[in-house]
Amino acid sequence: MERVLFINTICGTGSTGRLVTGLMDTLARHDVESKCAYGRWSAPEKYDTYRIGNNVDVIVHGVLSRITDRHALYSTGATKRLIKEIEKYDPDVIHLHNVHGYYVDIRPLFKYLKSSGKRIIWTLHDCWSFTGHCSHYEYCGCDKWKSACMNCPEKGQYPKSFVFDGSKKNYEIKKELFTGFEDMTIVTPSKWLKDQVSESFLKDYRTEVVPTGINLSKFKPRESELREKYDIGDKKLILGVANPWRERKGYNEFIKLASELDDDYHIVMVGLRDKQMKGLPKNITALGKTDSIEQMAQWYTAADVYLNLTMEDTFPTTNIEAMACGTPVITYRAGGSPEALTQRTGIVVDRGDIDGVIGAVTKICERNKERTQQFCLSQAKEYAAGKRFEEYMTKVYGL
To answer: Taking the model in full, what pTM does it have?
Structure first.
């Protein structure tokens, strides 16, 4: 293998974009050349990249998709130009990540990929590839995707449609396009998502689990004066982080929890929008989104418990980030969220069980803090980014 082409919505930013550039760096150390074709924003200059379409393409695609519910079925011209770029670059392996995001037409792309004779790797970051519309369905409890989608209950969620419901036709198109590859490997970040794939029309493909890693040189215990700055003092600090906060990410759950806790506890929620900050209980410190990894590491370190009350998730790295800063995690039994935890580093609670959350918080806060911190730091090492990138090299690429 001499050359790999990545295709993803973004390059170098966000969790999937950083995963791509991390893999490119790791491939380079194995003397393998790589290039990333991406659809939105900009890319770091140090990498060989190709922008698929332009901002106008993305806007038009997004607007039409929100009317017709034909997401990933526009940007046809940009996709045909991408195919010419792929032929010119002539990679040995084409590694797909998110092909949703208003930047490619999956019809010409996958018809080309299927006939190209190239080895295909597809890392799934959500469930979009095997549903007729949504990227997640656990919150609403829908399992139509196992046979055939229609009358989608998630039509108003990403990639939202305000008018038509195209879920039935979308499902049929995806099933035809995404099946029948002779050499395709699917990669998932969690066992939960692998299990979902095994019940979908993608079930016949080899599927490997490679959890997403984090940068342990950035997420580590850090001293701060945050408790003093926000007048938290020596109260038990419960931290929640989301971007964006929604009901399905646990926004209402935190408000319910706040009303049940006594004065010994204080909640900090990071990532709130301005309108979400209004009218919150007094025992919640409301903060907006931060792009500062150092500040997030300070909050993780300052917290006694990291609380993740998501109702659906593929494999949230915030759980690992918290452990990397020495903080134990409590999470709902949702998607792949519990998978990074051990009995010594966290507690898993059934979705919606606020009494169970309170009991888990109490139990965590009664543990020996120094010993728990060491257990958390040790567990986080299993998810060091470099270790997981090398796992890709051996398990997926065969290097």
So the answer is: 0.97
Q: Which of 288, 243, 249 is nearest to 268 (CA)?
A: 288
Q: Find out whether 168 and 132 touch, Cβ atoms under 8 Å.
A: yes
Cis ω before 244 (30° cut-off from 0): yes
Rounded Cα distance, 82 and 91, in Å: 13
pLDDT in tens, 119-170: 999 999 999 999 999 999 999 999 999 999 999 999 999 999 999 999 999 9
Among candidates 253, 250, 234, 232, which has minimal Cα distance to 242? 250
Helix or strand holding residue 95 (H, E): strand 93-96
Angle of helix 354-366 relative to helix 251-260, nearest 10 degrees, comes to: 70
Domains plus CATH for the chain?
3-213+385-397 (3.40.50.2000), 226-383 (3.40.50.2000)
Asked if 74 contacts 105 with a C-beta cutoff of 8 angstroms, the reply is yes
Residue 30: Cβ-neighbour burial (10 angstroms; 0-12, 13-18, 19+)? exposed
